[in-house]
Amino acid sequence: MANATQTKFGYPETLIAETDYWTLQTRPAQPTLGSLVLVCKEAVGAFGAVSPEAFADLGRTIPRIEAMLQAAIGYQRINYLMLMMVDPDVHFHVLPRYEGEKRLGDITLADSSWPGAPDLGKAVTLSPAELQILRDHLRTHWATDVTE
């Protein structure tokens, strides 16, 4: 069963990948092209309450996310934001950062706050069709095996 944060970010329609402890979803409001949300499936509201098994799974998942985003979007830096002020479940906003614009089909997004801190208030909400295009594109780049 999905938690409140997964649901808020459009689960299951936005789902790119799922591990034993985490879901990786496209973020409907995109501050940069390829922005994601990584949500813990455990019923915890504090990062320190995440189980050792979920932390280990996170360690295996992060390299896969970075490989996927590099292949699918290309980025210069990546930001992981753990804000948890509105959405109660442990989660990260994963933002690929780049100078200028990135394009996927008819979707073009600039990193409007490069090289500063990301501005989530300037996010562009994608249409359901655009969100599906982005989700499907990212899914094709989800690596099953990433070596460090």
CATH topology: HIT family, subunit A
Label the overall shape: globular
CATH superfamily, please? HIT-like
Question: Whole-number radius of gyration?
Answer: 14 Å
Low-confidence stretches: none
The tally of domains stands at: 1
Give the helix/strand class: alpha+beta
Instruction: Report the span from N to C terminus.
Output: 32 Å
The count of DSSP E runs of length 2 or more, i.e. the number of strands, is 9
Order of helices and strands: HEEEEHEEEEEH
* Helix fraction by DSSP (H/I, runs of at least 4): 25-40%
Kindly estimate the percentage of residues that lie in beta strands according to DSSP: 25-35%
Overall pLDDT level:
95
GO molecular function: methyltransferase activity
GO biological process, one term: methylation
Protein name: HIT family protein
EC number: 2.1.1.-
Keywords:
two-stranded antiparallel ribbon, 26% strand, alpha+beta, HIT family, subunit A, five-stranded antiparallel beta sheet, 148 residues, single chain, 9 strands
Would you summarize the structure shown here?
With 148 residues, the chain is of the alpha+beta class.
Q: What's the topology here?
A:
Blueprint: H1 4-8, E1 15-18, E2 22-26, E3 29-30, E4 36-40, H2 52-72, E5 77-81, E6 91-97, E7 101-104, E8 107-110, E9 124-125, H3 128-140
Antiparallel strand pairs: 1-2, 2-4, 3-9, 4-6, 5-6, 7-8
Protein name: HIT family protein
EC number: 2.1.1.-
Keywords: Methyltransferase, Transferase
Structure characterization notes:
The protein has helices spanning 4-8, 52-72, 128-140, and strands spanning 15-18, 22-26, 29-30, 36-40, 77-81, 91-97, 101-104, 107-110, 124-125. The chain has three helices and nine strands, in the order αββββαβββββα. The termini are far apart. 26% of the residues lie in helices and 26% in strands. With 148 residues, it is α+β, with helices and mostly antiparallel strands. The chain has a single domain, classed as HIT family, subunit A, CATH 3.30.428. This is HIT family protein.
